[in-house]
Amino acid sequence: MPLRLYNTRTRSVEEFRPLREGEVRIYVCGLTPSAEPHLGHARSFLFFDLLRRYLRHRGYRVRYVQNVTDVDDRSIEAARASGETYDVVVARHYASFKAAMRALGVREPDAEPYATHFIPQIVEMIALLVERGHAYVAADGVYYSVATFARYGRLSNRNIDELRAGARVEVGEHKRDPLDFALWKFAKPGEPHWPSPWGEGRPGWHIECSAMSRALLDPEGEGFDIHGGGADLIFPHHENEIAQSEPLMRRPPMANLWMHGGLLLFDNRKMSKSLGNFEPLSSVLERADPQAIRLLFLQTGYRKVMNFTDEALDAAQTTLRSLRTAYRRLRERAGPVAGGSDDPALFERIEAALDDDMNTAVALAAVVDYAATHAGAHGDEAVRALRSLTRALDLLGLTPDARWESDERRVPPPDLLDRLRAALSDLRGDGLESLLHGDDPEGVVGRILELRAQARRRKDYATSDRLRAALSSAGIEVHDTGDGSTWTIAR
Question: How far is CA 264 from the centre of its chain?
């Protein structure tokens, strides 16, 4: 089955065909580090990380470029408010972003261009647009003339007359048409600036991405494969990129395929500091397992609007714990895995899902089901299952690490003894009274499991069930296997 992806440009799901045999070139609009990154950023970059992983899994050579908008109105304003220079603000917030991406298992881009490092390419591109009649010099900068580009609005499926009717000219702007946008902004006092043929200034937001993608992916002007970003970038940012880029190309379109991730809501509301539901990504990562966050996003199709709640995150952490438990059981039975082949049945399910417009929910369900079904395997079957599960998890970015090797849920919480005493207070007989005075929570749990095993051997299932229920009420999950019973902390 061929890989099929939704193309915003054509508004249809279509077979993916790279422009060059065996090679895929991707440009994704990166962060504007004027403030702390949030979960909405994480969702977008986690998806494109998975897309890149899957394309490589299918045998493509992938060149992935993700830019940094390191100078714009917001970073300059943030610097003015804090009394710092714009580059200090950018460095601080971008360091936080990079740390979060590492924690979430997002691989490094093949190229990570900073806008300020491409000023010559930006100036050159603006000069060509002026020369060819698509841009003009005004009193406050250089503007792109939207009226010169007949296909404006095609990507976002918007009517240009309706757009113009709703547009307005901001105070201090000298553009000819309300839809025109700045390519170069003349310097104002205290702002960073660079030289240009039209005067000292700085680039507009949209031209940065056009110049960087052109320089790094398409110097021949024949287009590259995939341009991506969040759905909020379709208009005006990506629409403006197309308008700037395609008049200078030998063979449009700018990108053969446009991919956009859905928006993220928090408790059914758009994230906003004024609504009090804005939480920095670093804060979320302090209270939640990064892989649980990744797993949560995998459970929702990348194009869908997603509602983030603490309850959903808790459920994702439960699923992650189940995966880790199954992985550890296989490790115990399989030992070190070297060589061997994968289970084709698992990867057929995963690939069928991801080929269907990157249906991560179905792909994840296949992995979870496989882990649960094969956790009790032995011998060669365990070796094959462990190898297959490990590779599948890595494909999804849930790469097993030290957290998968040891059960962190066996670390007892400080109040576990109190929980056990409360749970056992109504039970009598079989030595349970003495357990109430123990001081070793793990020993108490172990003794209860021994008593439960004895009850099961004598077919006293009522006592067995009561003991299990008591442990459950104390927050202990019991896992019965053919080799005996194990336990983990449920909460």
Answer: 11
> Which residues make beta-bridge pairs with 280?
38
5 contact partners, CB below 8 Å, separation of at least 6: 13, 14, 16, 257, 259, 357, 358
By the 8 A CB rule, do 357 and 5 touch? yes
- Give the span between the Cα atoms of 70 and 208, in whole angstroms: 10
Q: Which helix (H) or strand (E) element contains residue 400?
A: none
Pairwise CA distance, residues 455 & 431, whole Å: 13
And the tokens for 29?
Answer: 């609009």
- 3-class secondary-structure state, position 342: coil
Could you tell me which residues are beta bridge partners of residue 27? 65, 227
Taking the C-alpha atoms of residue 431 and residue 400, their distance in angstroms, rounded to an integer, is 41
Question: Please, which residues have CB within 8 angstroms of residue 434's CB and are 6 or more apart in sequence?
Answer: none
Beta bridge partners of 477: 488
Query: Mind listing the domains of the chain with CATH numbers?
Result: 4-270 (3.40.50.620), 289-406 (1.20.120.640), 409-489 (no CATH)
Residue 227 CA neighbour count, 13 Å, CB half: 28
Whats the size of the chain, residue-wise?
Answer: 491
- Residue that is written with structure tokens 């100036």 in the block: 123
Sheet holding 181-186, edge to edge: 135-138, 141-144, 181-186, 201-203
For 396-451, how does the pLDDT look when each residue is reduced to its tens digit (9 = 90+)? 999 998 888 765 555 566 777 787 777 777 665 555 666 656 667 777 788 888 88
Burial grade of 197 (CB within 10 A; 0-12, 13-18, 19 or more) = exposed
Distance of CA 153 to the CA centre of its chain: 28
Stretch (H or E) spanning 55: helix 39-57
Q: Give the integer Cα–Cα distance in Å for 43 and 243.
A: 27
The pLDDT tens digits of the residues spanning 253-272 come to 999 999 999 989 887 777 65
Model pTM?
A: 0.83
Eight-class DSSP state of 197: T
H/E run at residue 140: none
pLDDT tens digits for 95-143? 999 999 999 999 999 999 999 999 999 999 999 999 999 999 999 999 9
